[in-house]
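Our collaborator T.R. sent over the components below with a one-line note: 'Predict the complex.' Nothing else. No constraints on interfaces, no templates requested, no preferences about which chain binds where. So this is a plain run: every listed entity goes in together, and whatever single assembly comes back becomes the starting point for the next discussion.
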Amino acid sequence: EVQLLESGGGLVQPGGSLRLSCAGSGFTFSTYAMTWVRQAPGKGLEWVSAISGSDGGTYYADSVKGRFTISRDNSKNTLFLQMSSLRAEDTAIYYCAKGIGPGIAVALTPWGQGTLVTVSS
Amino acid sequence: DIQMTQSPSSLSASVGDSVTITCRASQSISTYLNWYQQKPGKAPKLLIYAAPSLQSGVPSRFSGYGSGTDFTLTISSLQPEDFATYYCQQSYSTPHTFGQGTKLEIK
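Returned assembly:
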């Protein structure tokens, strides 16, 4: 069974940093694109960042570009999202999701259970 | 960025009804259109990918249609477990934007 388990969320002050992790199991992690999607409390889904499973290319939403860095450690089947210069508007549940193929132009399934990031003083 | 607009934003229907949700892209996205279902407190679940393709394990009462800029998700013979929020997403170009969601409620 394919599973994704996020960790690393929590309360952080504005301007602070946090690193999220997403451990994958049940599939050949290195060959799939992976994506982070967030959902602010009571709001819709926002695509944040993706990393290709074919060439390792990385992609970001304008709202996080220059502040967030996506990476992966294929030897540990783990996806990361390094977040810095955090703002109140980054408060959200962060989901990681597996692409249905190696390229990023694909649908996402499954999704992890999410990890909550709260940016507040 | 490609804007995705869903309509309606909310919808009331009864068990056994058929409903259609529309998603419009601000530019052509071919068939790079996906549909997700989200229930309260849960992660989204993929229903339809690449516009008409039904994800494995998803009931056949869910169907997707469209290409270019206009897409629909139809749920025939609504079941109690179908009452949820539905999102479309384009995966044609980054950022892979989502629609604002359609909340399907029991009448």
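Summary for T.R.: The interface with chain B takes residues 35, 37, 44-47, 50, 59-62, 95, 97, 100, 104-114 of chain A (CB under 8 Å).
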